[in-house]
Every structure is written in structure tokens, then in C-alpha cells.
Amino acid sequence: MSPSTNILVLGATGYLGGSIVSRLLEHPKAANFSITALVRSEPKATVLETLGIKTVLGSLGEHDKLEALVSQADVTIAADADDLAVTEAILRGLKRKFQDTGKAPILIHSSGTGVLVDSAMGMHATDTVYSDTDIAQIEALPPTALHRNVDLAIVAADEAGYAKTHIILPPTIFGLATGQLVDLGIQNRHSIQIPGFIKYNIARGHVGIVGEGKNVWGVVAQSEVVDFYIILLDAVLSNPATSHGREGFYFTDNGEFTHREVVDAVSSALAARGVVKLAEPTPFTEDDFKQLPFLAFFGTNARSRSDRSRALGWSPTKTAKDMLASIQPEVDALIQKA
Q1: What pLDDT, on a 0 to 100 scale, did the predictor assign at position 3?
Q2: What is the pLDDT confidence band of residue 1, given thresholds at 50, 70 and 90?
Q3: Rounded-to-integer distance, Cα 191 and Cα 5, Å
Q4: What's the CATH superfamily of 5-336?
Q5: Alpha-carbon distance values, 231 to 215, 242, 314 (Å)
Q6: What is the DSSP letter of 172?
Q7: What does each C-alpha distance from 110 to 48, 101, 238, 304 come to in angstroms?
Q8: Which residue in 21, 182, 281, 300 is deepest, having the highest Cβ count within 10 Å?
């Protein structure tokens, strides 16, 4: 590792990004890191600067600013899975860095196993399980799949030789974020999938279900997927040959659950707080799907196996049982926040 590694974190006060920043500050080699964060909020930027983090006020939508920032970084850690224009600005910055230094910079990008989803609508599980070591299987995914256009652009940049790219694909992430930035009040504590499902059902007044809830998703604890970001960062800094590009896909699953299991846990948690009556879930209606098209996502299958990630030494311990147990604290936090 170089005496000073310039690391740019995009989404530095978000659910994953904030915890990644906290881990970087606690890293045994933190003294060798120069961390920069692109931040929209001036008050949050002020807090980050007290921690020794350089901040730049702005948004991912400011593509020229984003490109310039990336062009100054040795490592960019990014968390926008679906905005191709943002990704293209990042890639232009990586190319500028390569042209200026002759050394390919590193990109660690956050995608997700949403790229694997089918149209089961809760009616069945699938036998198809994707491994992050099966490159042919991943490359057979259609370019129209969720996240896929961004993933393909990133792989193409690696193939062009001006960047070393690594794509992390978490499944359903659970658990309230904790750490220094949470304690300072500047980090989002909540994931998207399960909290979004909880909030919609609170507003609905009765817990719903997609189809029969037989579909299956993988799961990972927030703290343990953040572990992997640091493991991967350490690996690529110590060994530039660490799998990248078309071989640089990393799943981060540790167990599976059915949609019905989440529905029942959410129903019990909301009933325990008197938010809804504990009753058999009712099927989501066409009106429900119109109000929140994302609901259909909960009826899909997305099964993955993190063989490549585990080969780097990642060894998660929390499973779907822990995820189901986390739903009551998640409900309590959302009720308190409201």
C-alpha cells in the first residue's frame, strides 16, 4: 500500500457508506488513508471534517464535479446501483486518473442481487442459484435486468484497461446501522427493502403479501456486508491482481428466507405495538402495486452463493434467523422516528 491512499467515498452518510467511513477511520492503517466524501449537507460536512475527512459539498447529479473528484482518488467506493449517468461520470474520472498517472485506479461499486430477480410473484421458489465464481452464468444475465446496464459499463471500463473494477452484490441487507457516524447523528440507519415494506404496511393498516410468499431471497447483516467492503479493500490494495472486471463480481449472502417469513414477522411486530391487528395477511391488490410498484419486487426470487467473497476470508455468522429477529427493533425504530 502506498504511504497515502486517497479514498473517495460516495454516499458517505448513507446506510452502507456511513458504516464504511466509520470502519475506515478505525482501520489499523487509517493513518495511511486520506478520505474524501461528497456530501449534500453542509452541517454533515462540518461533522465529517471534525473526524479528519475532507468534504466537498455537492451531489451525484453534478457530474463534472463528481468526475473531477474521482480523477483525484486512488480508490472510489460508490453506492449508486442504477444511475448510468452517474456511473459514466465516475468512469470518466477513473480514465482521467489513469491518463494522468499511468496506473489504473480502483473502483468498488455497490450493485445488488436484484439483478437476479424473476417474475415469480410469490407463487414459487426457484432452483437457480448464482455463484460469483460462475462467470458464464453471470454473463448470461440479460442486459435489461435491474442494475445490469451499470454493471456492464463498469466491467467494460476494466476491460479497456483504465480501471480495476470490483462489484459487490448484496442480497437483502438487514439491521440498524451503528457506529461513530450514527452516534453523531449524521448517518441513515435504515436499509431500503424491509423498512420500506414495514412503512407501506403501516400506512395500509393491514399487512399484505405478494402471491403465496413462496419465493426466496438471500440475506446479509449490515455489519457483515460492511466487513466485506473492508476485506475487499485490503485485498485490492495489497494485491492488485485480486479478481476484478468480468471476474470481479462478489455476492455477499449468508442464508435465505421466504417472503412469507418476512410477512409473518412484520405482522407480529406491528401487532405487538398495536399498529395493526394480528391477522392472516391479505394479498396486495392492483391498487397497492400502483401506489408502490416496488411491492412486486418482494415476490421475486434472487438466490446467490458468495464463493468468491468467502475465498477472500469473509466469514459471516448472522443468518435469516437473525434477520427475522431484527424486524421488531426495526419496527420500533421506525415508529419512534415517525
Answers
A1: 63
A2: very low
A3: 29
A4: NAD(P)-binding Rossmann-like Domain (3.40.50.720)
A5: 31, 11, 7
A6: E
A7: 22, 25, 21, 16
A8: 21
Rg over CA atoms, the chain: 20
pLDDT digits (tens, 9 = 90+) for 263-292: 999 999 999 999 999 989 999 999 999 999
- Helix or strand (DSSP H, E) at 39: strand 33-39
**C-alpha cell belonging to residue 227:** 466487513
Q: What one-character DSSP code corresponds to residue 179? A: S
Cα–Cα dist 258/217, whole Å: 7
- In angstroms, the CA 171 to CA 303 distance is 8
Q: What is the pLDDT of residue 91?
A: 98
d(CA 111, CA 171) in angstroms, rounded, equals 10
pLDDT in tens, 142-180: 999 999 999 999 999 999 999 999 999 999 999 999 999
- Tell me the DSSP string of 48-92: HHHTT-EEEE--TT-HHHHHHHHHT-SEEEE--SS-HHHHHHHHH
Residue with cell 466487513: 227
Nearest to 122 by CA among 320, 283, 325, 286: 283
Distance of CA 172 to the CA centre of its chain: 9
79-88 pLDDT tens trace: 777 899 999 9
Please tell me the distance from the alpha carbon of residue 131 to that of residue 305, in angstroms, as a whole number: 5
Helix ranges restricted to H, 184-304: 193-204, 222-238, 259-272, 286-291
Residue 167 in contact with residue 153, Cβ under 8 Å? no
Contacts of 305 (CB under 8 A, 6+ apart): 129, 130, 131, 132, 251, 253
The answer to whether residues 238 and 327 touch, using CB atoms and an 8 Å cutoff, is no
Is residue 119 classed exposed, middle or buried when 0-12, 13-18 and 19+ CB atoms within 10 A define those classes?
exposed
CA 144/CA 149 separation, integer angstroms? 7
- 106, 163 in Cβ contact below 8 A? yes
